[in-house]
Design goal:
This protein is of the alpha+beta class. Helices cover 22% and strands 27% of the residues. It has helices spanning 3-20, 23-26, 35-40, 47-66, 195-205, 225-239, 263-268, 309-319, 349-361, and strands at 90-97, 101-108, 115-119, 127-130, 132-134, 137-138, 141-142, 145-151, 159-164, 172-175, 183-187, 211-214, 244-246, 284-288, 293-297, 328-332, 366-369, 375-382, 385-386, 392-396, 417-421, 425-431, 436-445, 448-458. Strands 14, 15, 16, 17, 18, 19, 20 and 21 form an eight-stranded mixed β-sheet that branches. A six-stranded mixed β-sheet has the order 13-12-11-22-23-24. Helix 1 packs antiparallel against helix 4 (47-66) and helix 8 (309-319) runs parallel beside helix 9 (349-361). The radius of gyration is 22 Å and the shape is globular. The chain crosses the membrane at residues 48-67. Residues 184-375 form the Calcineurin-like phosphoesterase domain.
């Protein structure tokens, strides 16, 4: 039997064992690297349980060592459909606006009315809303007409069917987030538009998530504005059906003389920043699941120093959170504050120094980052040391970008780093209730989503030792 066949057999054994073990036995997570220490420290109710977990630890650790890293795949260019005309809606995506409304964004080649008709039955659209459109220029490129319409109020956890610009040839459907827990988040960073991106999106399409969170680096257009159009068409099947909430990465800056930075990003991916009293599309926050989860989308490439608008806004936003009502607080940044990969070392340090104290004081539960093209999960950490009342930091910049993987890690592995692997993949955060959430990282394994790391998280709001001032 080949090494690869042994690896796949070990994976199947692991899946069987996980079904046999109680939640408490898996609570601290499994996977390779330093996560193994967490399991050894656990107390088990029977010798059999100990044996099963040791087998699980072996399979997970050996599997990571045996796994062969995938090769880069071609960059995709998604053209406009052959039967499309100048009025055909394309690049459709949705995002939430407050608790009861959805923003629908799309592009048409020709100017037409910004209108969305919608309803809860396919082919029937009794409700309608109007909005506005805009265009932008970038050197010799001129965008299509970017339409922006907010629909609602909508019922939670409900499928709506809609069409843009009263064009009956393309009907879309979206599902609104639930009004309470549980809620499922897909998390992808540094997505790009390659064959691996396509694989990641295909994996997600088979999972019933409520919302997607993306911590920056969307299209990798890098000044080539037609690549923004291609990216919009590539993600449309998913982005038109579930809210996509994004923040910016370095590839969105597109700095050029006499052209505003983030010009394409701000025009194409408008987020509900004004709802959270932010003055910039580069940082904002929102509530979901009836306020049970508060999500901070921070700007690694907007001014974050003391006295800046983002700095002051973050202080104010965190001060409004009532942890009795909001047991979960999640933050997204692009450049990670903690990183044991050789790539992008120290690039998030200034932001960490400026803002980490705020997140620690507010007992933020999880911080997701991108930028580094690999996966890494840290323990709860504050000021570079383990802290049981600090956030778990997770780097997930492995969505499928064209630049490939960041394969080189610093040795020895820091004590605060529990699991790290340079592979493409995506994450799933399942917030089950006010106290527990399940985090899973799925490796893109020959186009099959393989669970490579998993951990149960407990909200800091439920920990009596981690009370906040709010």
């Amino acid at each position: 039997m080949s090494k690869w066949e042994d690896f796949r057999r070990c994976q199947k054994i692991s899946l069987t064992i996980k079904k046999m073990l109680p939640t408490s036995a898996l609570h601290q997570g499994y996977g390779g690297d330093r996560a193994q220490k967490e399991r050894v420290a656990m107390a088990f109710s029977s010798p059999l349980q100990m044996v099963l977990v040791l087998i699980l630890a072996f399979c997970s650790t050996w599997g990571s060592l045996a796994y062969e890293r995938p090769k880069p795949r071609e960059t995709l260019s998604v053209p406009l459909a052959d039967d499309a005309d100048g009025l055909t809606p394309q690049q459709v995506h949705v995002s939430i606006v407050g608790s009861e409304k959805i923003r629908v964004t799309w592009i048409t080649e020709d100017d037409t009315e910004s209108k969305v008709e919608y309803g809860t039955s396919s082919g029937q659209h009794p409700f309608s809303a109007a909005g506005s459109s805009s265009t932008y220029s970038f050197l010799l490129y001129r965008s299509g007409h970017i339409h922006d319409v907010v629909i609602g109020p909508l019922n939670p956890n409900t499928v709506y069917y809609y069409r843009c610009s009263s064009n009956p040839t393309r009907e879309f459907s979206l599902k609104t987030p639930p009004a309470n827990l549980p809620i499922n988040f897909a998390v992808i960073g540094d997505l790009g538009q390659t064959g691996w991106t396509e694989s990641t999106l295909r994996h997600l399409s088979g999972w019933s998530h409520d919302m997607l969170l993306l911590p920056g680096d969307l299209s990798y257009a890098d000044y080539i504005q037609q690549s923004w159009d291609s990216f919009g068409r590539l993600v449309e099947p998913l982005a038109s059906s579930r809210p996509w909430m994004v923040t910016q990465g370095n590839h969105e800056i597109e700095k050029f003389p006499f052209i505003r930075s983030f010009k394409a990003y701000n025009a194409r991916w408008r987020m509900p920043y004004d709802v959270s009293s932010s003055d910039s599309n580069l940082y904002y926050s929102f509530d979901v699941a009836g306020g049970a989860v508060h999500v901070l989308m921070l700007g690694s490439y907007a001014d974050f120093g003391p006295g800046s608008s983002q700095y002051n806004w973050l202080q104010s936003d965190l001060g409004k959170i009532d942890r009795a009502r909001t047991p979960w607080v999640v933050a997204l940044i692009h450049a990670p504050w903690y990183n044991s990969n050789e790539d992008h070392q120290g690039e998030g340090e200034k932001m960490r120094q400026a803002m980490e104290e705020f997140l620690h004081g507010a007992r933020v539960d999880i911080v997701f980052a991108g930028h580094v093209h690999a996966y890494e999960r840290f323990t709860r950490v504050y000021d570079k040391k383990k802290d049981d009342c600090a956030p778990v930091h997770i780097t997930i910049g492995d969505g499928g970008n064209k630049e490939g993987l960041a394969k080189d890690y610093i040795d020895p592995q820091p004590d605060i780093s529990l699991f790290r692997e340079a592979s493409f993949g995506h994450g799933r955060l399942e917030v089950r209730n006010g106290t527990h959430a399940l985090w899973t990282w799925h490796r893109n394994d020959d186009d099959e989503a393989v669970v490579a790391d998993q951990v149960w998280l407990t909200s800091l709001a439920s920990n009596p030792a981690c009370k906040t001032k709010n």
